[in-house]
Amino acid sequence: MKIRYRLLSAMLAAVAVLAVPFGVGAAETEDSSTGALNNYRLGYMSWGVKKMGLDVLQEKLEKSGKKLPEVRVAVLDTGITTSNKYLQGRYIEGYNTMNNSTDVEDDAYHGTEVSGVIADGTSSNVKIIPVKVMNQTSNSKMADTAEGIYYAIEHGADVINMSLSGDDKNHTYHSLDKAIADAVAKNIVVVVAAGNEDTDANLRYPANKSNVITVTSVNKNNTLGLLANYGSVVDFALPGMNILMPHKSIMFLDSGTSFAAPHAAAAAALLKTWRKDLNQYQIVEILKQYAVDLGDKGRDDTYGWGMLDLSKFDINKTPEQIVPVTVGDINKDGRVSIHDVTCLQRHLADISAGVCDVRAADINGDGKVDINDVTALQTKLIS
């Protein structure tokens, strides 16, 4: 089955009709002697790096005295410009699911831009896995994208970024559902762009999936980006307007939710650098702790939980200290009840995977969450 994906650069943000007003300019810039993207000792291209405190967290991690693990971020997109000097040393071999080859050269440059945002916001231990699932006309088959997810799983991805979007007005079943669920089950963080149709992101796929992190865009004034989607599925509102990033052999200024999503992927990659075994739920909950409220008080359908600021993140704390766990309180309402059983059942059926606290769901203490924990929780409530 074919799906017409829109690159979320101004589509995703990269829709051709929007590329002109969104891509406002290109400029040749000088970088460090290594040619690779900057780290905390140097400057940053995206204003979002400092806005989100990624520069401060990166410095804390690099000065911790600990060897930073390799963290892999799979970018399912149009490929990558392998000759771009700003990306040297920041990517590993990828895959082209459209022709089953290792040719991931980017003929649309959207994937290069997205990859550049991730590299810009992370330290050199974070490597991009370019997975080409889309051509220059932004056409893709669901099967190609699903294959891309499985390639990412098989090649050690810790985070998957999908700055792509398809029409899903009827919330129909998609073959990608299982691939996404399998990735999340492997503790891979899946980040997607909300889209740029100035509409409810519930109508866009995979933005409307409950088990992904859906990101919309804002400008420097924390105002919703031009044409950026909104809605109950939006988790965070991150920098996406006028972002400077690699494009072909130069730097380019572009806008859209396509570039907000990789800011979230960069944040997730740094948290994976801190604790490699964090699952998606844990990372979402940590990010909520460090979200700056925008718009209406609390979570709202325009900005989600708001803008992230990880500058005060304490790398010496444990995940449990940041987000306490009460075994059995799966729906996070402060008590253990039959509602937690329902939440766990829905989680296991991949109906509300992004809502339930799966850390609190290992009721029988065997180190995994499965149907046996449903039985254990039911027994606990009866007794």
What is the name of the CATH topology of the largest domain?
Rossmann fold
Enumerate the strands of the largest sheet in spatial order, edge to edge or round the barrel: 5-6-4-8-10-12-13
Level-2 CATH architecture of the largest domain: 3-Layer(aba) Sandwich
Tell me the strand percentage band: 15-25%
Oligomeric organization of the protein chains: single chain
Text of the CATH class of the largest domain: Alpha Beta
Mean pLDDT across every amino acid position: 85
Count up the domains. Answer: 2
How many strands appear in the DSSP assignment? 17
Helix share, percent: 25-40%
The biggest beta sheet is recorded as: 7 strands, parallel
- At the fourth CATH level, what is the homologous superfamily of the largest domain? Peptidase S8/S53 domain
Global outline: globular
Measured between the Cα atoms of the first and last residue, the distance is 50 Å
Low-confidence runs of at least 5 consecutive residues: 1-6, 10-42
Order of helices and strands: EEHEHHEEHEEHEEHEEEEEEHHEEHHH
Number of discrete helical segments: 11
Compute the CA-based radius of gyration. 20 Å
